[in-house]
């Protein structure tokens, strides 16, 4: 049952990583497995068996989700862009109370708001001026330059994917390779998928070690930085709706607000279940941050 549960967690993370503006790291925080995910990746060489037992079902679920949803997500964003993004905004906002509780678990100091403000500002800047997403040209052939480009873009996106609040897919969108990556996945273009996969693997391994270091040394400052990224994700998605001329009033707006509320409620209900399980002690022991599942 634990394996199946983690496969479904991987599916949720995989879907998040396909959608520009939604963060797989945020989804891991919502599912309450973020610390363990980062720790398992960071300790892959030290504790390979323990790490792989946790990571393999997540990778399997994420891979299946990315393969299955690459075409579906593209279709939904083309036909129901505003509705889908309002739902994602609801999911993001619903996770804020949980992150706040983790950031203020031990104590709260005013200076902790500084990293929160900085990361919030970074997210807002991504939809302003030259950082706004532009129309992409789909790459279909692999040259040495394309190989290098796809490798480094995928590596940077992978680092961002494991940081809550930052969308790796959105980073690909900023660099103009998102459509190319989605097309390569949906068409199983092995030549293009090779540098993408190599870059993603390198980015995840390198990025996880950095994040794990900061979570161990500066946990509260790190969580407040994460909170800033998450707070900024909502305005980023709403800004994208505006800059892409997908904002609609009337019935579409009413429906979008409704799904936004649904997204908030889903996360809050999930969080309350987690709290009840902790209180009831269903796991039979008190879990540390790195053991939370």
UniProtKB/TrEMBL annotation:
InterPro entries assigned: VCA0040-like
Claim: Transmembrane is one of the keywords in the record: yes
Coiled-coil ranges (or none): none
Membrane keyword on record: yes
Source organism (scientific name): Massiliimalia timonensis
Identification of the protein by name: DUF368 domain-containing protein
Keywords: Membrane, Transmembrane, Transmembrane helix
Transmembrane segment boundaries: 6-31, 52-76, 82-100, 112-132, 144-163, 194-215, 222-243, 249-270
């Amino acid at each position: 049952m634990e394996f199946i549960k983690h496969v479904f967690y991987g599916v949720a993370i995989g879907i998040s990583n396909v959608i520009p503006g939604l963060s797989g790291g945020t989804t891991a925080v919502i599912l309450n497995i973020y610390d363990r995910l980062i720790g398992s990746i960071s300790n892959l060489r030290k504790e390979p068996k323990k790490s792989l037992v946790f990571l393999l079902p997540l990778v399997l679920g994420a891979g299946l989700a990315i393969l299955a949803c690459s075409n579906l997500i593209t279709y939904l964003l083309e036909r129901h862009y505003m509705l889908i993004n309002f739902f994602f905004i609801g999911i993001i906002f619903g996770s804020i109370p949980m992150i706040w509780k983790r950031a203020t678990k031990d104590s709260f100091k005013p200076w902790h708001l500084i990293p929160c403000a900085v990361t919030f500002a970074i997210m807002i800047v991504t939809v302003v001026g030259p950082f706004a997403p532009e129309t992409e040209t789909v790459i279909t052939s692999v040259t040495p330059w394309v190989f290098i480009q796809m490798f480094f873009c995928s590596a940077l996106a992978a680092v961002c994917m494991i940081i809550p609040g930052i969308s790796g897919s959105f980073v690909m969108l900023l660099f103009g390779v998102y459509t190319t990556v989605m097309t390569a996945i949906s068409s199983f273009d092995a030549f293009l998928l090779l540098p993408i996969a190599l870059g993603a693997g390198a980015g995840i391994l390198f990025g996880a070690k950095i994040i794990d270091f900061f979570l161990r040394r500066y946990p509260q400052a790190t969580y407040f930085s994460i909170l800033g990224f998450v707070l900024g994700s909502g305005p980023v998605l709403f800004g994208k709706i505006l800059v892409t001329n997908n904002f609609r009033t009337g019935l579409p707006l009413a429906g979008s607000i409704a799904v936004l509320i649904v997204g908030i409620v889903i996360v809050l209900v999930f969080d309350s279940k987690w709290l009840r399980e902790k209180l009831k002690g269903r796991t039979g022991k008190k879990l540390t941050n790195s053991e939370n599942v």
